[in-house]
Amino acid sequence: MSRTPLRATWTVACAFLLLVASTFAAQQFVPPAAADLSEIARYVVQMIEANHLSQGQVDDKVSEKLVAQWVKDLDSQKKYFLQADIDQISRYNTRLDDLLKAGNVDFALQSFDLYLKRLDERVEYAHKLIDMPQDFTLNETIENDFKSLAWAKSVEEINERWRKWVKYEFLTLMLDPSIKEEGKQEEIRKRLHRRYKTIHDSIHKTEKDEIFEMYLSALCNVFDPHSSYMSPRTKADFDIHMKLKLTGIGAVLRSEDGQTIVAEVVAGGAAAKDGRLKAGDKIIAVSGDNGEMIDIVEMKLTKVVDKVRGKEGTIVKLTVIPKDSPEPKIYELVRQVVEIKSQEVKGEIIETGSRLPGTAGKIGVIHVPSFYRDFQGFENGDADSKSTVTDMRAVLRDFKAKGGVDLVVVDLRNNPGGALAEAIEVSGLFIDKGSVVQVKDPRGRVKSLNDDEPGALCKEPLVVLINRHSASASEIFAGVIKDYGRGVVIGDTTTHGKGTVQSVMNVGPKFQFQNGPDRGALKLTIQQFYRPNGESTQKNGVPADIVLPSELDASDEGEAGIDGALPFDKVDSARYARLGMIDNQMIASLQDASHKRVAADAEFQKTAAWVKRFEERKQRKTVSLNFEELKKERLSNDPLNGEEEPPQRATDAPIFPVNNYNNEVLSLSLDYLKLIREAKTARK
Questions:
Q1: Which of 26, 174, 408, 489 has a CA 20 to 30 Å removed from the CA of 537?
Q2: All residues at 6 or more sequence positions from 341 whose CB lies less than 8 Å from its CB, including other chains
Q3: CATH code for position 421
């Protein structure tokens, strides 16, 4: 049960917001020069109608869907609005299209004000409930099927929902083994009070331009879930993650209880070179334009970042309370360009004998977090422009310089995609020439985008690792490898299933002077893409040849589970030649060997138990609020020993950490390598 009252603007497959719950202190955001919100709204409507893949019009049907999408974005769990509020909002069902075309966005601001009012009422009541005695002996249940749940018709009805909701959260913490038994109930009350204060304060800090961004993104989402409006600030952050380059102090910041905390000091940045700022330090003040120190306690994180950002070579002063000292200190840092090394392609060579005793093999593992590309840098001819293919080439050449490898593993797990051009060029490193992806435009015209460069930099046998979060450009690469018979795909049952191409367009007239007002940008779906074999990856994704047990695979986090996702589609196959490096007989042999190892592995059995429990709970419409019942359900004969969450991988882990999953990938790689060598011998 999610506790988040506002739906995330970006889905995992949507784009490049890879640094969840944190914000880079990068180049300074400059508010748009008198960019009128009504003017932006009119342009957005015009651009959607002219450019979206569906060629749909913003009409009464879209208006009705927009109302529903907006309500869902604000209150997906039906915890705040009453039926009377929904009736009031629904009066706009056939009016928003006309209002938007006229540049009127009052609906968004007024309905958000109503949402804030209801939020205040519910949170105030929640604080009262937290301090009340709780009776966990009653045989009560709470509903968790929010889609079929009706809106509460009265304050009494919604208060009853909140009584059960707070009781559920209280009960969940009662079963949390990390909370000491001594003073447990008081500690739980403190945590819940803090939780609801954070929810209240963070949502109340939502600014007008952010509401506007959410509203126009909701309009885009009516057409498909991957189109959105980006404010100038969001566009600036998007550019940072595409370029993997920022100008600032080189620190990742997060907000906690109204405090700005240093989450990470970026290697190579100004803060890292200075050496004083550390992860865990609190920043309580930042110098303004005229040098005066501005208190940032309780300030919204995006505002803090705006103040920390600045031009290369300028000085920023920070008042810092170090994590190991109560005494505030002032640090002066010179802003500089920093490359975000943590998000670039990395590789390592694994001698399998060190992981799997008794084996011998050299496997090169390449981790690809995203398909990034500094478009502006390439356009300007900058030699040091960042791109996935440039870094991939460097890793492959490094493998060769170190004596070569027997097989290459390309790890695309959790890769949300990125630049289409990068997917094509990276694919070209592993095949000779031929179709990489086919695209269909709004007029239904299909074109094959090819790798035209002869030869392949990597000719070794190939394993591609995927999961449910491998999306978009990742699926293009995995699809090429599968269709060409170039290697074996291992991982979750299938990839995410995002088979559409987005283009980022500056909002405004088609020909706009660069010194015009910054109106933000539209990320708009303009094409659907297809594998060389003619199948779209839309909804279906790219199926794995070998499936390994995975907690993520049991979730509904694929494209098929997203409301408004475009349907699966097919076109004619492109011309391409299979390479014959994998066949059905090989796959069957690999599956058989893997199944035997997985069945004998205790950690995989633990994963299977977690998946089984997850699947069972997913079918339930209610959850018990009886302590003994819930405790029995969660702990009795539980192979997971009460663990409620699947194992989490550390964010600072090595490229290919030692664990049972990765070890099975190495075993499969050695099995595949043996089959390849046997096939070559048989052909001689």
A1: 408
A2: 266, 267, 268
A3: 3.90.226.10
Overall size of the chain counted in residues? 684
The secondary structure of residue 101, as a DSSP letter, is H
pLDDT in tens, 552-590: 888 778 898 888 888 999 999 999 999 999 999 999 999
Q: Using an 8 Å Cβ cutoff, are 530 and 536 in contact?
A: yes
What's CA 295's distance to the chain center, in Å? Answer: 32
Residue 589 falls in the annotated catalytic set: no
Establish whether 472 is a catalytic residue: yes
Residue 592: C-alpha distances to residues 88, 488, 503, 611 (Å)? 60, 15, 43, 21
Confirm whether 127 is domain-assigned: yes
| Angstrom distances, CA of residue 661 to CA of 594, 601, 607, 658 | 11, 10, 10, 8
Distance CA 258, CA 522 (A): 32
Residue 103: CB atoms within 10 A of its CB come to 15
Task: Answer yes or no: is 399 within a domain.
Answer: yes
pLDDT in tens, 239-297: 887 887 777 888 889 888 788 999 988 888 889 899 999 999 999 999 987 788 999 88
Question: What was the pLDDT predicted at 326?
Answer: 82
SS (H, E, C) 372-399: CECHHHHHHCCCCCCEHHHHHHHHHHHH
Taking only the tens place, the pLDDT of each residue in 608-622 is 888 888 888 778 888
**483 is a catalytic site residue:** yes
Strands 315-321 and 282-287: antiparallel
Active-site choice (472, 536, 594, 624): 472
- pTM for the model: 0.84
What is the residue range of 651's domain? 341-683
**Which residue from 316, 237, 277 is spatially nearest to 521, judged by alpha carbons?**
237
Q: Which residues contact 292 (CB under 8 A, 6 or more apart)?
A: none
Beta carbons within 8 Å of 18's beta carbon, 6+ residues apart: 241, 343, 369, 370, 416
Cα 400 from Cα 404, distance rounded (Å) = 4
CA distances from 290 to 27, 60, 305, 329, 606 (A): 18, 50, 17, 20, 59
Neighbours of 328 (CB within 10 A): 14
Please check whether residue 77 is in contact with residue 146, taking contact to mean a CB–CB distance below 8 angstroms: yes
Last residue of a domain, which of 339, 362, 386? 339
Residues 507, 651 share a domain:
yes
Task: Report which DSSP code applies to 452.
Answer: -
* Predicted pLDDT of residue 33: 42
Same domain, 530 and 629: yes
The tally of domains found in the chain comes to 3
pLDDT, residue 601, reads: 96
Residue 625: what pLDDT? 94
618 part of a folded domain: yes
Q: Which whole-number Å values give the CA distances from 544 to 109, 178, 420, 486, 555, in the listed order? A: 46, 37, 22, 14, 16
**Mean pLDDT confidence for 81-95:** 98
Selecting among 167, 498, 523, 606, the annotated active-site residue is 498
**Do 87 and 115 belong together in one domain?**
yes
